[in-house]
Amino acid sequence: MHELVIIGSGPAALTAAIYAARAQLNPIVIASTDRIGGDIATTTEVENFPGFPDGVDGPDLTGRMLEQAEKFGAEIVYDDVTSVTLDGPVKKVELAYSEPLEARAVIVATGSAYRKLTIPGEERLTGRGVSWCATCDGFFFKEKALAVIGGGDSAMEEAIFLTKFATKVYVIHRSRTLRASKVMQERAFANPKIEFIWNSQITSINGEDTVTSATLIDSIAGDAETTELTVDGVFIAIGNDPRTHLVHGQLDLTAEGTIAVSGRSSKTNLPGVFAAGDVIDPDYRQAITAAASGTVAALDAERYLARTIS
Ligand code: NDP
Questions:
Q1: What lines the ligand 1 site, CB under 6 Å?
Q2: Torsion of CA 220, 222, 227, 228, to 10 degrees
Q3: Residues 185-194: pLDDT tens digits?
Q4: CA angle, corner 86, sides to 29 and 249, nearest 5?
């Protein structure tokens, strides 16, 4: 029986691991096999994490957090959680490739998943021109024309990064107002390879074996104005949804779909179960706020265990 299992490997999970390990709780961190480090690990350069005035690569930041957690005694298990049983004093965590784990407390820090457009061609051409990750797939689009969908920081970041490879990057945004921070907007506006297509919705991604074009409609005129944009790839950056599938039916969720926690704490509706990071946060979703949330969860778990063990 373990004291604490932490599900996730982003900034929330790893910060919780650092605190819990220093509190000698010997935490087990389950890092999913396809998304080690969470979203931040696929980010090119993180410029707003305090302590790194020259910026830090997402994977580098993740690597440092992992190293720090392990240094204090956290055990990282690279496996996928298939199900959890969270009620009762002993929590059970089933894994895809190893024996189930039992623990007195669990921190759920499963982050969020890329949002989909749910339009024709999106699923069929995923991996064949449709992508959610410029750092993962951008390299395959040398000298190509690309579309990035979205108007937030992620879309700006993806577009700017893709100009390293592509000859042209169209940013397609459904309104005339960007949600991205001013600094990211200005960088995108200043990039000669980026062209904004305003008030436009993508309605289908086209191509036989690979992407060859995208169909756009004018957000205001609707179907009356349809254009076909010739592109070799479509990068979707329209936000994320909290990844809560493991806890459906066990933990209370908010109207926004995040795990409900009590006040400023990480306490869920079940004793001994805590939640942290993007999975509880519909608003801020920064690496630093996730890290802070991981701290809260580790402290809550530590206090819970101190109360219940003796
Ligand atoms: P956001 O929620 O900020 O932006 C999503 C964008 O996608 C919006 O412009 C939205 O349009 C658009 N959108 C949503 N759904 C659709 C749809 N179905 N069709 C077309 N467009 C759609 O998400 P991000 O991932 O960009 O950012 C999430 C958080 O992460 C933010 O807090 C951001 O600041 C942060 N972040 C920070 C970075 C940094 O600091 N370097 C880098 C990346 C992310 P509309 O505006 O019309 O709603």
A1: 48, 117, 149-155, 157, 174-175, 179, 237-240, 285
A2: 120
A3: 999 999 999 9
A4: 120
193-245 pLDDT, tens digit per residue, is 999 999 999 999 999 999 999 999 999 887 778 999 999 999 999 998 999 99
Domains of the chain, CATH where assigned: 2-113+240-309 (3.50.50.60), 130-236 (3.50.50.60)
136 annotated active-site = yes
pTM given for the model: 0.81
* CB-based contacts of 81, cutoff 8 Å, min separation 6: 7, 30, 32, 93, 94, 95, 96, 246
* Number of the ligand 1 atom closest to the C-alpha atom of 157: 42
Q: Of residues 60, 80, 87, 133, which has the active-site annotation? A: 133
Assess whether 137 carries a catalytic annotation.
Answer: yes
* Cα 172 to middle of ligand 1, angstroms: 12
The residue to which tokens 């519909």 are assigned: 282
